[in-house]
Amino acid sequence: ASIIYFVVADLANIDPMYQYSLQFFASLFEQRLAASDRSDDPQERIQIIVKDFTEFIYTKICMGLFEDHKLLFAFMMCNRCLRHKVHAQFMGK
Predict the structure, then answer these.
(1) If you write DSSP's letter for every residue of 9-64 in order, what string do you get?
(2) Residue 84: predicted pLDDT
(3) Residue 90 to residues 1, 24, 26, 86, 93: CA-CA distances in angstroms?
(4) Confidence (pTM)
(5) Within 13 A of 24's CA, how many CA atoms are on the CB side?
(6) What span, in angstroms and rounded, lies between the C-alpha atoms of 53 and 58?
């Protein structure tokens, strides 16, 4: 979640109106933890959470972006996720 938070926080460098608080982000994370599928296997649960939260945040944040900035946000998320081992596994890389 921290990887995605810092991507979202970096949106403020593109346009100052894209400022999201840590409190807002944490509440979205807690919401997705409660709503995501359960599993008894910890590794599977992690994969479920990573997938669910990544897709949810992308969709939720894109709702508030200008069309011109949505592709840039997608690139920023993809770039950061591929640089991290857990997210790269989720993306099959």
Answers:
(1) HHGGGT-TT----HHHHHHHHHHHHHHSPP-SSHHHHHHHHHHHHHHHHHHHHHTT
(2) 80
(3) 14, 25, 21, 6, 8
(4) 0.81
(5) 10
(6) 8
